[in-house]
């Protein structure tokens, strides 16, 4: 008897994606958009660190349907004859069938499973359609499956910073939120590095991002011109000690 659908393929087809994660329901950006092929479950970006040694496949959305990158899927299964579409300069393949009523049974190129109109020379509109076609006619999926021991997410995949309890309350203890639109008044006793540190702290509170990343951006906002202006203003203020001597 031939190999039927592997567990990861069943999970990819049956799991719900782009719904809130029950384990991180109070966290931001908690939509499930990754399929862990080893655990056969859908997970959100906050779950990814716990599955970092597993095979992970990112699921995307295109015209309200789940899709995966053809480049990633080809590492798992033969996707020949499945029509691909281009989004953000990358080819993607639909996971599930997208049935379409064909009123006229005339000549044309249609999906083997759901009668959707296709471009030449494709005969399947989705991965699900090809799998059903192969199992129906050949009873064996093994010749199309590929050995894949490692599958990682693309480098641009965003894993949210773990904010812990602060993320639950949306507050940062012992911090003061300052509106950056208001001008900052520099203290005559503060150095330039301390001023940049103040800006960095306020940006961390406002942006809720990682300290290193925000500090890097905040430091760039303090230009040489701003520092020169601040120094020139301080030079014009007489020192208290010199006033008393005179």
Automatic annotation (TrEMBL):
One Pfam family linked to the record: PLATZ
Record's compositionally biased regions (Low complexity): 183-195
InterPro entries cross-referenced by the UniProt entry: PLATZ
Chain spans, region Disordered: 169-195
PANTHER family, per database record: PLATZ TRANSCRIPTION FACTOR FAMILY PROTEIN, PROTEIN RGF1 INDUCIBLE TRANSCRIPTION FACTOR 1
Name the record gives this protein: B box-type domain-containing protein
């Amino acid at each position: 008897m031939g190999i039927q659908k592997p567990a990861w393929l069943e999970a990819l087809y049956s799991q719900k994606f782009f719904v809130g994660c029950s384990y991180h329901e109070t966290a931001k950006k908690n939509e499930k958009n990754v399929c862990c092929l080893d655990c056969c479950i859908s997970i959100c970006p906050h779950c990814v660190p716990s599955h970092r040694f597993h095979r992970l496949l990112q699921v995307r959305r295109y015209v309200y349907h789940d899709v995966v990158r053809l480049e990633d899927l080809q590492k798992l299964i033969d996707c020949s004859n499945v029509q691909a579409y281009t989004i953000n300069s990358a080819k993607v393949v639909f996971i599930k069938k997208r049935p379409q009523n064909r009123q006229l049974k005339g000549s044309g190129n249609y999906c083997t499973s759901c009668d959707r109109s296709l471009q030449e020379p494709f005969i399947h509109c989705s991965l699900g359609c090809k799998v059903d076609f192969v199992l129906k006619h050949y009873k064996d999926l093994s010749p199309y499956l590929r050995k894949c021991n490692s599958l990682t997410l693309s480098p641009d995949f965003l894993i949210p910073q773990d904010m812990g309890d602060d993320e639950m309350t949306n507050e940062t203890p012992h911090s003061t939120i300052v509106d950056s639109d208001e001008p900052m008044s520099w203290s005559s006793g503060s150095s330039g590095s301390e001023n940049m540190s103040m800006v960095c702290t306020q940006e961390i509170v406002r942006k809720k991002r990682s300290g290193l990343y925000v500090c890097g951006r905040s430091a760039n906002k303090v230009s040489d011109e701003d520092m020169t202006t601040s120094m020139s203003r301080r030079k014009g203020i007489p020192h208290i000690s010199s006033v008393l001597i005179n």
